[in-house]
Amino acid sequence: TLDFKFLLKPKYQATPCIVEEGPNRLLTRGALQGDRRLALFRISNDEVLEYRVLIKADRVSPFDLAASWRAYLENLQPSTVRGIPDVSINSAPDTSIE
């Protein structure tokens, strides 16, 4: 089970993400629990944005998931873009000799 909320990230501004209003969503066995198909984001006291959401999840074997997680951790390189923490993953190991 995955417990989450959507984030709204401004594309051309280095401002913080806006967290979806309301209770957390639950994704269990590839299916979204509940009937909430809209995500609400409060921009200001007077302005609320509403987006329709659709979630598609494919089942993955535990072995494939463990292998992907291990590869992710081995290639994790934290960086910062425009002051926003970001993560990039190497697509191939660095074989250069220093």
From TrEMBL:
<protein>
    <submittedName>
        <fullName>Uncharacterized protein</fullName>
    </submittedName>
</protein>
